[in-house]
Design brief:
By secondary structure, the chain is α/β, with parallel strands linked by helices. The chain contains 13 helices and nine strands. Helices cover 44% and strands 14% of the residues.
Length: 304
């Protein structure tokens, strides 16, 4: 892993991701090894979350350590106190920091000034911890990563970008279907295309959901308006008409394809109930794997 923290999925080389998944499966089966005995995690959030907060707290406790949640009101990153000062102070108290921020620049500054590892628990550019859980779920269900095809239906957001990078690193094909104006940015694509050229991954951008899903091993979707985009909800709902993952669309993937969603889901919008609750859905295994993937990440960063 590059550097002392984990800000991007690209901080892992391709062989790191595959070996990381095997290690996470082993750690998941072991139960509660005290690999972080006496260590303290600071959970520093600008945005609320169910899965991110609880999965990190439980993961750290299961590893024998402790966790402290710090709410937005308690810190006021960049307002009540500067980001560099927060990083330097927390480094004197805790062993590792996980931050969920509005801006990716904030988590980068935290990492620059902290003397302990910093984990990106979500920013506007990436959600690498979610991608680790997603790929752990894929690995458990498919037994491999390379050579599979992941179809993402929806906005070219932080989730899509982390999945794209991870897929390109390990040699997994990545297809994304988005409406005009909502696809991945060129800068994001250039980075992934460099990885894909080495791994043999195929990257496909299309406006046609059926084309993206055709023959896919994994079908993935996310909300059309993420946290902080509520004012755009009506505009986005119109733009994403026809991008709902329903049984008809899912049927165009392979018969043994699995369905993923990072949650929370807006049922009846980006996905129908019969898909998210259907036999191909592994959404709640995926949610559980946030804890197991992050447990493996914490152990790795803290030397366990």
């Amino acid at each position: 892993m590059k550097g002392k923290g984990f800000l991007s999925i690209s901080d892992m080389a391709d062989e790191d991701i595959t070996s990381f998944m095997a290690g996470a499966v082993k750690l998941k089966a072991q139960g509660l090894p005290a690999l972080c005995d006496g260590k303290i995690l600071a959970i520093l959030f600008e945005k609320p979350s169910l899965r991110t907060r609880v999965s990190f707290e439980v993961a750290m406790r299961q590893l024998g350590g402790g966790a402290i949640y710090i709410s937005p009101a308690e810190v006021g990153l960049g307002e009540r106190e500067s980001v560099p000062d927060v990083a330097r102070v927390l480094s004197r108290y805790v062993d590792i920091i996980t931050a969920r921020t509005f801006s990716h620049a904030t988590v980068e500054v935290l990492a620059d000034y902290a003397t302990v590892p910093v984990i990106n628990a979500l920013s506007d550019r990436e959600h690498p911890c979610q991608a680790l859980a997603d790929f752990l779920t894929i690995y458990e269900n498919k037994g491999k990563l390379a050579g599979l095809t992941l179809a993402f239906i929806g906005d070219g957001n932080n989730i899509a970008y982390s999945l794209l990078l991870a897929a390109a690193l390990v040699g997994m094909n990545f297809h994304i279907a988005s409406p005009v104006g909502y696809s991945l940015h060129d800068e994001m694509l250039r980075v992934a295309q460099g990885y894909a050229a080495r791994s043999g991954s195929e990257i496909l951008l299309t406006e046609e959901p059926g084309r993206a899903v055709s023959g896919a091993d994994i079908v993935y979707t996310d909300v059309w308006a993420s946290m902080g985009q509520e004012a755009e909800s009506e505009v986005r709902a119109r733009a994403f008409t026809g991008y709902q993952v329903d049984r008809k669309l899912l049927s165009q993937a392979k018969a043994d394809a699995i369905f993923l969603h990072d949650l929370p889901a807006h049922r009846g919008e980006e996905v129908t109930d019969d898909v998210i609750d259907g036999p191909q859905s592994v959404v709640f295994d995926q949610a559980e794997n946030r804890m197991h993937a992050q447990k493996a990440l914490l152990a790795k960063l803290l030397g366990g």
